């Protein structure tokens, strides 16, 4: 019952994947701190500092915290009012040979900031792989429906025909840009390294007897041991909070893409042309039993707005950092960074679930086309008359009159569009009446939509997903099952 009596964020308790929720968990955070302390000790020993081999071995054996160690750390933090020092002492209790050298020469941000950079990079990896799977799913959908004509909309008013698959490519193209942006952000992340209390490395220079080369080598060694290709050349006590803003910018942009896709699906659901998955036992409304609300797409829109707004926190935090450090970033970042990644994770998994069960209703789509196509086909009818030696201006006037009569039937009487019947009943159009069916074939109004889908998937999507990391993610992916 205790879990139900304390507030829990729905991001982790209700929606997020286990992998992303674990990445920002306390267990993984403090495990990562211990690995960073181990890497520092290994590098310092390699450069000649008197660190016992037993200290290194004990640290390696206790990288993961037990429940008892979490309890000890909680007591230590309450006493010391300092989370890092609480964990230094807790680690020292299980690795006594290392108790005197854990955190040697380091400041708290050695573990807190370097760990955050690790989490940002790994979190981007999760999102990149999830995004690749989503793009793959939507690409299959686009290919399947590349030839199915559908009414296009501009200003949400009937416009020239497109195809269901072509419309999906508009979604995919934005997701490809998001994939590019996320990969750029991940590739750009460096390591804070070992820089000391204000970034001058003074403590390490003292430890290494004034040897500047060894200080630089220590920074490089710890950076390499921690899996990074480079460390930021200069830092203050913290890494620049501008990096957080740069990382969350593509996440916010992804949120905009996701909102647009989900909103399109919500509008199509209203038109009954396309629906998101709906289980046989699912309830759309507690009062209206017949309803099939697009709740998954609505969830995406809801969370996507939250994702877009979170980026503002990082911008404001970056802008108000004083000189070499101020602590008013800490509480904000503890909330903002995990929430951004958990939210993006949920948005992508929900979109994948939607994409894996999209239901298309071709007859509804065809009926809507039949209501609008006669008006759109009038130019083709006029051109056909002209080709049969008719007068363009006279044909235009005939069509104008008949179109207004048909529009009156639709708008004022609520009847079907009978423009074609009116054309068939007018002797003026006798020369082209045998051609009316071909002139009204929806497939003749979709331009190069099918070819554009094929070219886009082959020339843009396929190359974007061809690297091994993404191919492995796609091949190992399974259908997403939402818990709620």
UniProtKB/TrEMBL annotation:
Catalytic activity, EC: 4.3.2.2
GO cellular component annotations of the record: cytosol
> Does Lyase appear among the keywords?
yes
Q: What is the name listed in the Swiss-Prot or TrEMBL entry for this protein?
A: Adenylosuccinate lyase
GO MF, one annotated term? N6-(1,2-dicarboxyethyl)AMP AMP-lyase (fumarate-forming) activity
Reactions catalysed, semicolon-separated, are: N(6)-(1,2-dicarboxyethyl)-AMP = fumarate + AMP; (2S)-2-[5-amino-1-(5-phospho-beta-D-ribosyl)imidazole-4-carboxamido]succinate = 5-amino-1-(5-phospho-beta-D-ribosyl)imidazole-4-carboxamide + fumarate
Major enzyme class: lyase
